[in-house]
Amino acid sequence: MSTPRTHTPARQAAAAAIDAPGTDEAEWRAARLADHLPRLVLPAGAVVVVAAHPDDEVLGFGGAIATLLAAGGPVHTVCLTDGEASHGPATPSARARLAARRRGELAAALGELGALPAPVHAALPDSALDEHEDEARAVIGELLDATGAALCVAPWENDLHSDHEAAGRAARGAGRDTATPVWSYPVWMWHWARPHDRRVPWHRASVLPLAQAALDRKEAALARFTSQLEPRGRGMPPVLPPQELAHHTRTFETVLH
């Protein structure tokens, strides 16, 4: 995950929503989404999971990845940026070090989920992915073609983070190019939305229940992202404080399709 740029009024509004105090997980638990939303069945065949930043794929779909791998299904991942902007303004050398660190964290995290091929790293600019959507779409499309994917899973294109939204749009475009179905996973939505929020297309939402073994693997994977779990500097909280992690360690995952 990374924090969004705020160069435009739309981005400023999105950043304000993300920076504001979020919806407590207790409110989501009280909504009993797993009881009220339909359940989806994971498909047979190869699955390509797209992330805007290292950790998005684990936050939004890590339990499902572990479930697919345990069943012997092939899973491939593509990370569009290296997340080098997650700690805010920094020198080029500091960003390069953070990018390298986050690549290492991602490799370790994916290893916790199961036996996965090495991720495809597109190395597009963090916090400027919307300026490189065509490149992202091409990278995703190439992987969908190469793997003969039965499904592509990507960040939700209305997540209020410009990179997540660009990744979602790029995946939708690549899905159309290759006739591949696309599911979307929300990341920041759990922070700024609330149960029954009209900004969320609940009619498209379904849940994927997680066995305890898959949830354990997901939690172990999330623990690998130490750059996002530690304070970013003096007086700067982590990108992923405990209240955010709580949204992503439920006994189910939610996708929009």
UniProtKB/TrEMBL annotation:
Entry EC number(s): 3.5.1.-
Any Pfam family hit: PIG-L
Keyword Hydrolase assigned: yes
Signal peptide extent: none
Gene3D superfamilies for this protein: LmbE-like
A GO molecular function held by the record: hydrolase activity
Segments of skewed composition (Basic and acidic residues): 245-257
Renumbered residue ranges of the record's region Disordered: 1-21, 230-257
Origin: domain of life: Bacteria
Keywords: Hydrolase, Zinc
Enzyme class, UniProt record, top EC level: hydrolase
Biased composition regions of type Low complexity, renumbered to the chain: 10-20
Protein name (Swiss-Prot/TrEMBL): PIG-L deacetylase family protein
Lineage per the UniProt record: Bacteria, Bacillati, Actinomycetota, Actinomycetes, Kitasatosporales
